[in-house]
Structure formats: structure tokens, C-alpha cells
Specification:
The chain is of the alpha/beta class. It is built from seven helices and five strands; from the N terminus they run βαβαβαβαβααα. The chain has a five-stranded parallel β-sheet with strand order 2-1-3-4-5, sandwiched between helices. Strand 4, helix 4 and strand 5 form a beta-alpha-beta unit. Helix 2 packs parallel to helix 3, helix 5 packs across helix 7 and helix 6 crosses helix 7. About 30% of the residues are buried.
Length: about 190
């Protein structure tokens, strides 16, 4: 890794928190901040803007994980959770909330860095998939609007589909706009007139 990772450790037990921080900072590749008090967590995390949030929860409920997951903004950063006990329902809730790596055991120094690396890799994969899905949905929505605009032109001008598409494309180029923008304007105008 080229730069130092900023890791926020959420742990209420001071001894455990310092043990985790020492283990992570020992190789010099991590800058670790400990947060014991979780009040105002979302605001404090936004201020710190860590690369990874590591949560060590000895006795967590679904409400706690949902609150922490929302606060840690799992869509913006990797979140690793250590929660001993192996409660399957709790694990599912954590993963659905966006936790990148879930470890069903106590924190051990020798697994910290591999778990952090796993969380970062998993986060990157999920983020890439989310962005691809958003792009695909956007493209599909644009395609639907373009098809509607073609249909409007075909009915209004008696054009075949290819000519209606060519007219939309030419108009977009002439106006230096995206094809979907021109199509959306046409669909909106037709809606106002019809």
C-alpha cells in the first residue's frame, strides 16, 4: 500500500482498544484513532473520514449494528466487524447493513491486518458492482426514454424507427446535448401537449 491507512477503531474497552491500535500501527502502515464513545458517531466519523472502520463489539444487538452501520457509512468506506458468538441472524444483518468483513470471534492481533485487507478488498468489489449496477440502470432508463421519444416521432411524423432515431441523434448533436437529454425533453413536451 502506497499511503498510510487511516483506521478508526470503535471499542469501548480501553485496554482492548489500545491492544488493537498497537497491533495495527506496529508496521507503520496504519494511523489508528480510537473511539470509545459512540454518541454522535456519524458526525464524528464524517469529520475523521477514515479509510476503514473497525468495530469490536462484545455484546451487540441488531439495533447496535444497524446504528453503527448507518453511522460508519459503509457505502463510503470499508467496515470490519469483530463480534464473537457466531449469531447467524446478527451476521446477516451486519452484512446487509454494509459491513465488508465480519469475524465471528474476538479480536486477535495476528488477524487484524488480514481482516482489514479483506474488508478493503471486499468493499472495493462491492463498490465496483454497485457503480456498475447504477450505470446499467441509468443506461436502461435512458434507453426507455429514447424508445418513448422515437415512438412519439414515429406517430407524429409518420417516420420509420430508424429515421426517428436518426432525427433524435442529429438534434442531440446539433444542440450539443446527450441523446437521452433530447429524448427526455421531447417526452416531457409531448406529455404537456397530449
Amino acid at each position: 500500500m502506497d499511503r498510510q491507512l487511516n483506521i478508526l477503531v470503535i471499542e469501548s474497552d480501553e485496554t482492548r482498544a489500545h491492544s488493537v491500535a498497537e497491533a495495527l500501527a506496529s508496521d507503520g502502515t496504519c494511523r489508528v484513532v480510537i473511539l470509545a464513545d459512540t454518541s454522535g458517531l456519524d458526525r464524528r466519523i464524517a469529520e475523521m473520514d477514515p479509510d476503514v472502520v473497525l468495530i469490536d463489539v462484545a455484546h451487540a444487538s441488531r439495533d447496535v449494528i444497524e446504528e453503527m452501520a448507518v453511522a460508519t457509512s459503509p457505502k463510503e468506506r470499508a467496515v470490519a466487524l469483530f463480534a464473537p458468538g457466531g449469531d447467524t441472524a446478527f451476521m446477516r444483518a451486519a452484512i446487509e447493513a454494509g459491513v465488508s468483513a465480519y469475524v465471528a470471534e474476538d479480536v486477535r492481533p495476528e488477524v487484524l491486518r488480514p481482516v482489514i485487507d479483506l474488508a478493503i478488498a471486499q468493499f472495493a468489489t462491492v463498490r465496483r458492482l454497485r457503480l456498475e449496477l447504477e450505470a446499467t440502470r441509468r443506461a436502461l432508463d435512458e434507453r426507455k426514454v429514447i424508445d418513448r421519444a422515437k415512438g412519439i416521432l414515429m406517430r407524429a411524423r409518420g417516420l420509420p424507427e430508424e429515421e426517428a432515431y436518426a432525427l433524435l441523434r442529429k438534434t442531440a448533436m446539433d444542440q450539443k446535448k446527450k441523446l437521452a437529454e433530447v429524448a427526455a425533453a421531447l417526452v416531457t413536451a409531448a406529455g404537456l401537449l397530449g
